[in-house]
## 1
Amino acid sequence: MKRLSHELTLEGQPGAFAASLMNSSADLVARACRGEQEAFRLIFERYSRPVISFIYDLVSDRGLAEELTQETFVRAFRNLGTLRQETKLSTWLFGIAKNVARESLRARMRASRQVDLEDKSVLDLSDHSPVPVHQLLNKELNELIQRSLALLDDDKRLVFTLKVFQQCSYEEIADITGFSISKLKSDLHRARSEMRRRISPYVRF
Amino acid sequence: MKCDDCQNLLAEYIDGEAIESDAEQVSAHLITCAECTHEFETLTAEQEVFARYDRELNISPAMWHAIEARTTERRPPDSTSRLSLPAWLSGLFAAPRYGLAGALAVLIVGVMIGVMYLRNQPQTKTPERIAGGKSQTPTGTPENLVAAVNPTEPPQKLKPVEPTKTVSVKESSKSNRITTGSADQSDVLFSDIAYSDIENKDTADHIAQAQNLLRSIRNIHPGDNDEEIDVTFEKAMSRRLLDENVVLRRDAETSGKFPVKSLLGDLEPFLIDIANLPDKTTPTELRAIKDRVQKTEIVAALQSY
């Protein structure tokens, strides 16, 4: 009984609360740095979905996004010791993911295997008369957003994805991308206008 | 508040990024203006559409297994596991099993190997031949270069023994070009890449000019009276450097000089920002760039090159 109560509490805290404290990002990083694989697995569990979504938005390729997500977490693991205390783990991971995705895109460009982003096939998906958003099939809407994103230039896509999909603050986006606040605001504004222009013929807001 | 001002702030307002006073004014304006309210509703509806975006991505257990397999090969960096050269040497001398005698034996063997090597290859290391190159003293040590331009590289690559190796390989490579030496081919390849990094005069000149530009921006002290500052010269210089930067960055990338590529990639946003300044800029805009130059320590990174 004594042992059980010891397991349920930690330094006077109720067990669940203690467990949540133990699993804060800072604690997970510290434990992973000490070589605890389980702590790093929890980091992966917590951040893999936003990271893979972010990478997918940048590279528009599901298989490649999975590969690059792996690479992101491997690099993160190897560089955990360089993570500064004041840096948010998510911001740091997005920063690595951005670098990994950009390296891959450049390599792909070099290999001249880049798909034609001006492919207009998606633009033929409707009869050009606005339809209410609920009538647009989810699958088509997803394709439309994905193709519209792919048509943005790299900087705008990066900023748009971080703001609109990952809900990062301007300050976090500036940390991740290295852009100034004025540049990212201007890119975001233009990205929004472009996305609206591409989507509005098919979706009546 | 005018409609134009309101609509310019709407996105920031929805994102929760507008400053408090602006947010209050936007809220007040939206109550009375149908046109801006319509724009607000459109933006909100857009957000909802994007919130429904489903990428249909799955995180498979295989992904974690692959990461686990790759990460268990190598433990995360631990500051205690990375010994500096002096620490390693002192550790060697302090080894209890061999003590001073062991250390001296190692030293003597090292000296003997060195003497034999010099006797066997007297012509490969003459100062005249080494001095025959274009530039003998790189502006930064290889260690600094690697550390500055590629901070995300695993720290294992920054072991203190590497710079020594790089320099010696560089020298032997130079002599190989003159005499037909029989050095290991992988070393020659590595030294060629490293040496051409430093030899690349265009890149070095470009980086020196970029450094000057950023220093000049950093040293401008805008007054408190919001007086506009003339940055025509800096802007023109930045535009020229930006064109150069794009070309050099691509060259570095195609020739596999990734540290240089990364450094030029880091520099580019600064050049873009300066090139896009109005001829007479406001102290606020200038301060934003100055702050970023200081915060990111880009000048120090360029200096290390």
Note: Residues 232-254 of chain B form the longest helix (23 residues).
## 2
Amino acid sequence: MLRPIVLGGLLLTLAPAFAATKNVKPDPNGLPPHEVMDLQYGDVLFYFFQDDYFDSITRLLAAQELGRLRHTEGEAELLLGGLYLSLGEHVEAGRIFEALLAGKASEAVRNKAWFYLGKVWYQRGYLQESERALRQVSDQIQPRISAERYMLLAQIMLRQGRDDDAVAALSNWHGPPDWTAYAQFNLGVALVRKGRLGDAVRYLDRVGQMATANEELLSLRDKANLALGFALLQAQRAAEARPILERVRLDGPYSSKALLGVGWADSALGEFKRALVPWMALRKRDLLDSAVQESYLTVPYAFNQLGASGQAAEYYNSAIDAFDAESKHIDESIEQIREGKLLDRLLKDDKKDTLTWYWQLKTLPEAPESRYLYQLLASNEFQEGLKNYRELKFMSRNLDDLRQDLSAYDDMLDTRQHAYDERVPKADRVMAATDLDALTRQRVDFESRINEIEKRSEVAALGTPEEQKTWARLKRVEDYLAAHPEDPDLTDMREKLRLEKGVMYWRLSESFKARLWNERRSVKELEASLVETQKRAVLVRQARSGVPTNNGEFGARVAAIRARMDQLQQRLAALSERQNRFLQALAIEELERQKQRIEIYQIQARFELAAIYDKATSEKPKAHP
Amino acid sequence: MNLKFRVVSIIMGAALLAGASAAGASAAGAPVAAGVPAATATAAPAAAPAETPAAATPDFKTLDQEVQGVKKDVIELNKDLFVLEEELLFPANTQVAVYVSMDVGTFFALDSVTVKIDNKEVKNYLYTAREADALLKGGVQQIYLGNLKVGKHELVAFFTGKGPMEREYKRGATINFTKGVGAKYLELKITDKVSKHQPEFTIKDWE
């Protein structure tokens, strides 16, 4: 019953907040697109919706620390409170809710958050805190949640012995039919406790006659009939009690007590023979049940009342033997629990990979002490303590897993450092062989030269090597002709030179602009390459000095986490041991209580047996004077 | 004969008061048996001691609060390690994270997603029903976290599943993106295109 309400409730709590993350603009295609506001918040929800609360909260806290929930800050904080609550961290959840809900949260969100916090506190036995949280819930809430809230408040009052308050709270309350049945039952109980049986009958009788097929309500109906039947018996109204006790189902969990009660009703009416029918039936059942234990006394009691003291003595003797054997079994179980393995045996078949506050141990392992522990398991204190123990073990396994990650990080940092140590000499050699300043100067010179060529229109300077060779040859011929100006044999040569030089110049001039543009582009590319090289050189220098620092920082963080991990493992181990001892003490206390009850029955049986023998002895002289 | 009253009061106390905790908050549904010690149960039933679990005992509360404290510290350590892992393995200047989101899902039931970056397959993920359901409820899955150099890259995603009319369905989506000096986030979005009665697959580049 708890699980769907809690999970459903948490989701409902989120629903209004989550709706705010969606795009509400109408979509031409008909459906509103689902707009994600913060990817990392969606990532948190991905795990949350799979009930993986541990991963979800880890990611949420990390995203908060890394500042990645800028658009979803409010709902993320609310979800964080819900996640803490789901993991049983009610103190932290309470702190978050108190801070968050005092402010801008909507009434619906506020109500649900307080309700679930109150419910968890109730479960853990923090009754005052639970009442305070539940009283923060307004009436503007779903009827079923409102009903459960009222019921929890009434139960807190009953658990604190505030019966008058409980009666006042429940008297005029109406809710959904099943919750009304619980309310009437609790009201009846509170009235009986106050000694107002007359008023209580009305409520308990109504629950005791309700028509239902629901197993939980059938069980409540049995309890109401049982409670009312015994209350009437106690008030010496056995004739009224009998039919009410007969309403209890024979195959239900309360049938043993009902059989005992029916026997007592017959007995109170002087119908001892009739009383023997339910009591003999009861006597065949498991002696573990306290009603069955009592039947070991009531059967001989009835025989005695019927004057069959021989049979009564026989049954008392048999009871003494049975109680003796049971007492020894309990002693053996106590010894086994003292060996300290109880909790690990209880959790042997448990699925260990989930962590939720609604977890409960449902089945007991096959072990000698198991048969005595059913009652203990019904107590919140034991269940919550067991849950704590289980969670401590989960946390310890989690740290063991993380320790392996840490070792991998250490290896990785070592490898990085090793690679760095290997690469640094090579990088240093390259850096030393590269004179970036000289290269920059060369680039400047080159650009100046291009400017000069352009300014002077030195077309030949940008010619191909072949052209430059030809141009140089022409220049040499020209110089020779200039040195022999009067030589008539050179006249043809002069004309030929003039023509060839003209053709050559024309060719060079024609491609000069394009060549100049190409040279300028080369200069620009060179400049860009030099800038990039300078950047890389800076990065190399930074990496050279930064890597050891980075590795060192990471190494320090890994070491710090490892130290925290060691310390946490010690705390977990110590707390597990204390939790184990605490629950062990509860179990032993429970077994000793059962043993004490059996011992009292045993004394009672011996006393009654002695009385029978006394009577028999004192009657004999009369029979044979 | 006091036997009768003793026994009746034992059962009485247990039956009445065990009942009071039944309203949906009783633990485990374990059978509730009589348990009031006989020695204290000889009083009248109306004054029988409370059998209902009382408020937490001081021992339990102290332990419970210490357990809460250590659990919170373990959660905190998990978070610190999570952050360390990301900063160590995927530093922001090279980090690229790819997410999958799904809206409505009327026309498409997701089976698997394959992610290729620069023509190299970096992830092939097969979804469980539980994971696909978490996506439909609004969860966003981080399908890939890796490192990329600054510059231009191409991401191709293939989605397989059941399309309209329960047919096998495989579609792809591509994006060219530039990786700068900060972390790069990409979202593979599966949405329903109602006008065409078809699913739609897009990739969003989160700046």
Note: The CA atoms of residues 224 and 381 of chain A lie 25 Å apart.
## 3
Amino acid sequence: MVDPLFAFQLTTGGHPDDPAYDNGKASKERWDKETNRVYDTRSWMHLGQDGMWDWESQDIADDEIAKHTGAEYHNVDLDSHEKRQNALAEIEQKVDEGKPVPLSVHGGTLFNPHGHQMMIIGHRGDQLEIYNPWGYTVWVSESDFINNHMQGASDDRHPEVRSVRMPK
Amino acid sequence: MSTPHPRSDGQLAELDVEVLLRFGLPDPGAHRSTLFGDGTVAAAITVDRLGVLPRALAFLAEVVRAGGTRFAAGLPEPLPGPAAVVARAWLEAAAMVVQDTTGDQLVARWLDAVAAVLALRVTYRGATP
């Protein structure tokens, strides 16, 4: 479930009570390095672009988010109007149960793709509340979700819903 | 129904999580939705700033499942370091309104939701445009 040695390594560098390692600044540096390591596991084929592809985000959602939280997810592709329409009830049910649903959005072209990860955290009437890790929550309508008008939740590069990771 | 307003991390961090827990845990409805929506983000931002890892929240959720909210509130350090004070205040607020194991399960699920939002923040904040 949790890995105390990982936390111990991160906070103390494996040298508890040694001021050279066991201090706030060094701990923050190890933390940043670990964060970057996670992000750097994305494919080299990005060739200098930011962001992640969907298959990577699935790996990351399973490998990183699930590893941190113990929650299990399965990927649900939402690359058609019908699939999004059909998945909506289950997404809303999970959110209503208090289980946030990780969401991939994307846009751009084959040679210049853009992708981003967010989380559906709330549901009220026909509105979905989405947390964008850029630093805000935003509400989108079910209609915008189904019709791929998601740019309001991030920016114009990511209008389309790609997939969700459905919690168990 | 009017569309609720978007909120920035700064605004969300100002929310009183203890109040959200006291009003949101007892019954399903609007307060519950706010607790699990804005409330999870507010809590995640607060402990993120104190250097807490998502796994610490997931662990605390397991403790609440196993021992109950009241027991977890009595721990000397429910979350590591300076976040201990914050976590104890949450758990004490929750313990005021949680009556049974069903309530404990709800508190545990809320902590898991906070862990998930925190995991999203720490995993993807490097992906800023």
Note: Chain A is about 35% helix and 25% strand.
## 4
Amino acid sequence: MNNTGKFNYRLVIFLIAIIFGVGMSIPTFLQTQKGAKVSLGLDLQGGLHMLLGVKTGEAIKSKVKSIASSVKFFAQSSDIIIDDLRAIEETISFSLLDKDEEKKIDEMLKTISGLQVNKEALRYTLTLSDKEKDLIKEYALSQAVETIRNRLDQFGLAEPNVAKQGSDKILVELPGVKNAEDEQRARELIAKAAHLQLMAVDEKKQDRSATMSPTEAEQYGDIILSDAKSDHIRYILKEIPILDGSMLTDAKVGFDQMQQPVINFTLNSEGAKIFGDFTAGNVGNRLAIVLDNKVYSAPNIRERIGGGSGQISGGFSVKEAHDVAIALRSGALLAPVTLLEKRSVGPSLGADSIQASLLALISGFLLVSGFMLFYYRLAGVIANMALIVNLFLLISIMALFGATLTLPGMAGIVLTIGMAVDANVIINERIRELLRQGVSMKQAIEHGYENAMSAILDSNLTSIITSVLLYVYGTGPIKGFAISTAIGISVSMLTAILGTHGIYDFFMPRIEKSKNIHMWFGMKRSH
Amino acid sequence: MEFFSQHKVYDFMKVSRFFIVTTLSLAFFSAILFFSKGMSYGIDFSGGTIVQLKYEQPAPIHDIRQLLAKDKIFSGALITEFGSPEEVQIRFATTTEGVTQDVGDIVRTLLKETGKFDVRKVDIVGPKVGGELRQKGIMAAVLSMIGIMIYVAFRFEWTFAVASIITLLHDVAITTGALILFNVEMSLDVLAAILTLIGYSINDTIIIYDRIREELKSTKDMDLMHVINTSVSKTLSRTILTVLTVFFVVFTLYLFGGEIIHGFSFTMLLGLIIGSYSSIFISAPFLKVLGFSVEGYKNKMALKEKNRLEKAKMRSQYEKGTV
């Protein structure tokens, strides 16, 4: 087969690579609206990266509490007397006084899924099965991810990213955060439990609100909560809420008669019915609107409130009201979140980093390509062409994968420049070696490529092994480094080996004629 | 242009004893540093908080120290200039768990009177995450070495694999020692640099081994010392030139890449020098130390060839139906 001549398959592949590389990297360089492009990582464009821990254990505790509430509610409404009902950590216990009611209670308990009932005489101990606990934890995590994502989407930041990490962590990335105020609001929005409850004020006990202890309140089935504006104002409320935020369908910012911002909420039909029934039966009493265990207002009920709408007022600023409304609309967090890791980069630092790494990239490129040109002459020019194509291809492939460019990723690209020409150095040294033995240029090129192949392959593969492991075990920006070096090295096998070989083949008739090994390979003519 | 005289075979083996002794004492020195001074871990691995500020004028570090001392979360904080006189880095071991409160805001309030500044960066790494990152880092380093060892054993032979791993361990040990000596903190970037070095420093070693394998095939010379000397000499220009190109880019990164990737570029610079030294002077001589023999290798290859021929023969007989 004669593949020396003007066109050859290597050159064709190389030309396709050039067209592909240049074409696919245009969206990135021009930052066009359409097309796959490499986006900048948080460390380059500025932004907030947080790893949040979800206290899924809390979700179990609150589930246990709500089971306890429903047991209590059931007992009260069916006239069953139970005593010493306790919900401690993840265990509920109570005693049944009348053995005749045992069947009724047992039937009711059976309807609660995942509940393990342990009976000693008439003393009940209720726990959740491990499977149920896992389900609750899993649900709490995915619910937290959903809720936080909803909230951030509505907050109006550009491209928030919220993702699950492991079994109890959430990764939040906010590239759009540009100043301290935005960041503060975003963080508050994320962490807000947004647990709305409508609770009845215990009018019989309310007079004693200043002095009653929480344990005493507990005995009456009450709970003491303080006012949102002042810790000194306390309310004694019935522990079991009338309804909570799960029955909410909408929450919007509005203004009251005093032109103060308020939040208007709407309940679903079930909530509206409960709300209507309650208000009808409690005219003259007060209804407390409780958000995250703070009482925002406790207005008197003047008449039955139908239609299922209500209002939270309590001296919000417009921005606060806006954020609370978002949090209410996206639902409550079942489990509280904590901060495990946070990395925030200001836009000015990001811009500095881009500038610094671009400078390193350009000067690194000039230094390496200048050296190649100086040391290898035309062979260096050919290697440099391959290097340029390598960079274009690297950018296009990163764009196609939707990879983000981080500062370590930039370092990876700079490093690729140095490593990609290694293949050409190895090949050119092999060719020179053959030329020194007096072989013709054509044969030296053919055999040079053959001889160099195994060393290049082996060394590139070991580099890729470490890149892959770095990607698997690395985090955040380091993954970007692993991606850019892995792609860079892989692409170099196409450009630095196949591409340059194609170019030599293309010029082979001239090379054979020229005999000028100084011009082609930078060697002294004395040989 | 040519840097190296191509006909000369340098006698590396003659001086190898000297280099092995040097290397062992360097490694020993690194070990002493590791166990006495110890590696200092950045917040990525130890957990903690870093706040980076940039003032419009040179930063009043003294005032900053005094003002921050008011809040106990900054107790034991390390407050240093960062890259330029305008920039300050505040580093301390405590971390905040709450999502809503923020150290950046606390710093902003406390330092209000010190002049106009910008909080450029806040990094908080909780202790749990730090521990996880450390574990993952060690995992990645160990698995890279195992991966490379398996690959080299598969492509060459076990003696080569063991010698290459010794070379790599040597590189990592001495680089780590140098990092301790130069007070470079172990961070995620530095770890990435070390892992990159593991992948890169093996390249030169492989080029030399590849050449030794090639020499062994063609030469009648049974003297391992000879074979190694020829191979290392013939690949010397390659080894140095490939390192040189990478050295160029790492050096530009070190010069222009900015303070943030200093740890990375500095580690790479150190490692490149150590790695190419070990490829040239350590990797091949260690083959001899490990008892690699040319005769044994040749016999093995001959046996392999014989087996291959026999198999081919049997196959052809089978296909012809003579068996």
Note: The first helix of chain B runs from residue 12 to 36.
